[in-house]
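User: Please fill in residues for this 494-position structure.
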């Protein structure tokens, strides 16, 4: 595989992610009231620690389970925690702490850097690489015979020898030849500057990351520098550093390989999901902030809101609940169609010796129904699985398909609020369960399984047309997962 010169940005609007646009809009409206608060500053500190830790894990500079990372995020980067929780010697723990501290200094510096006169330059990029490798004196290299050797690490300088890796299948992946590196880096920066104002931050971040890794200009730390440049692209737009977790590694590498083949969409999509998660968590801070204020401040703030914004804000936020009602009707129709189709196929399969009819049926509860509180335990459990707070105060509704064979199998879709308070952000989640008979009579849901790889969120700032399109795609994927789980449960009962 020979090296191909980096290509310019794709045409503007090639990749459209209205979900992130809408969430970003909501965040920009509310961030000013949060930025000076201690809760928000603590959130940013934790996010910076996570970035500093995960960017080294993804490069295999050190490794441990997610639990260790979470302790370090909450308690700070301490060598004693690394040694005890990570199962390494104190000496190794001190070295790992030094590496993470280098990473932490970089991400903290990015927040200050974007407040000044932001210009992406070769000098800045070389400086970032030097900071990343401040406590790395050597790196691995491969000889022509395939042997691994340790060589002194060049810091802040472009590579002078090829750094082309050999894949497991024996193919050599060619990065930019050393003699072209400076020219390619100049092209990278020129193309990036020319794209200012014409592309969304997620496209700029993904393009910059991929084209930089194509060049692979340094002897080491190329991946860490690439994620730093992507983080800068997001931070400049008022968003958050790009955290790629170890759990993302397979998808992340696969997306980079697809980008090598000319398809940047999977990498953009991964970056969008990571930003979406960060924005949702930041928006969830509002309730914590309000609870942490003194009573007098809360009252004064509330009165001010009532005077100037309450009616207008409520009207704007209420649009999200109108959207929820429309999505519920859409889901009802799809579930009825699904139940009707399955019912006609199940009934003829009823064995003669079975006392009840094999069948399929659908039902639902809207926000005014007395049955809207059904499945609360399962919905909360699923929300915890996806790390968010399911809010039932203003809106809750569900739709269900029940498949009756030897037992009742439920596929349930729920609509409810996202996070504390009336934020105008709602969520939909889907799960399957089996109705098990209780000794004292009746049934209870057991064998809960998510029927989607992620929950669906929507808000007042996004147009209903784009929400409906995203929801239709999400629902189709959810139905496939639910039916696959039904098939698995039937096979288990054979």
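Assistant: Residues filled in for all 494 positions:
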């Amino acid at each position: 595989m020979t090296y191909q010169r980096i290509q310019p940005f794709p045409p503007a609007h090639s990749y459209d992610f209205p979900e992130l646009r809408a969430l970003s809009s909501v965040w920009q409206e509310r961030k000013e009231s949060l930025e000076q608060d201690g809760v928000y500053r603590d959130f940013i500190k934790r996010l910076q620690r996570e970035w500093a830790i995960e960017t080294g894990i993804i490069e295999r500079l050190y490794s441990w389970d997610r639990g260790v990372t979470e302790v370090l995020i909450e308690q700070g980067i301490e060598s004693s925690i690394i040694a005890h929780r990570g199962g390494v010697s104190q000496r190794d723990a001190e070295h790992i702490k030094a590496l993470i501290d280098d990473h932490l200094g970089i991400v903290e510096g990015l927040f200050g850097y974007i407040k000044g006169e932001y210009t992406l330059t070769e000098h800045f990029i070389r400086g970032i690489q030097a900071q990343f490798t401040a406590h790395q004196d050597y790196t691995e290299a491969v000889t022509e015979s395939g042997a691994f050797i340790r060589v002194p690490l060049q810091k802040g300088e472009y590579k002078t020898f090829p750094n082309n890796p050999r894949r497991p299948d024996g193919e050599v992946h060619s990065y930019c030849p050393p003699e072209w590196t400076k020219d390619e880096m100049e092209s990278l920066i020129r193309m990036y500057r020319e794209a200012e104002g014409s592309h969304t931050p997620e496209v700029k971040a993904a393009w910059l990351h991929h084209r930089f890794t194509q060049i692979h200009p340094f002897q080491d730390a190329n991946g860490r520098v690439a994620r730093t440049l992507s983080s800068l692209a997001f931070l400049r737009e008022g968003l958050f550093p790009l955290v790629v977790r170890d759990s993302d590694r397979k998808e992340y590498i696969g997306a980079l390989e697809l980008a090598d083949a000319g398809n940047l969409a999977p990498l953009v999509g991964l970056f969008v999901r990571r930003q979406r998660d960060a924005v949702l968590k930041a928006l969830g801070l509002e309730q914590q902030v309000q609870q942490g204020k003194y009573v007098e401040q809360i009252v004064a703030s509330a009165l001010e809101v009532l005077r100037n914004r309450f009616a207008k804000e409520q009207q704007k936020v209420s649009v999200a609940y109108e959207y929820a009602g429309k999505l519920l009707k859409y889901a009802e129709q799809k579930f009825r169609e699904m139940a009707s189709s399955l019912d006609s196929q199940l009934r003829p399969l009823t064995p003669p010796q079975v006392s009840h009819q094999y069948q399929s049926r659908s039902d639902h509860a809207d926000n005014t129904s007395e049955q809207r509180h059904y499945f609360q335990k399962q919905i909360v459990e699923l929300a915890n699985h996806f790390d968010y707070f399911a809010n039932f105060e203003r809106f809750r509704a569900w739709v269900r398909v029940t498949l009756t064979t030897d037992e009742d199998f439920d596929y349930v879709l729920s609509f409810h609020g996202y996070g504390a308070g009336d934020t105008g952000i709602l969520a939909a989640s889907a799960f399957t369960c089996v109705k098990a008979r209780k000794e004292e009579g009746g049934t209870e849901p057991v064998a809960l399984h998510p029927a989607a790889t992620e929950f669906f969120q929507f808000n007042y700032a996004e147009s209903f047309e784009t929400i409906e399109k995203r929801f239709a795609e999400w629902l189709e994927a959810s139905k496939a997962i639910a039916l696959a789980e039904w098939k698995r449960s039937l096979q288990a009962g054979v």
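For context: DSSP finds 16 helices and eight strands in the chain.
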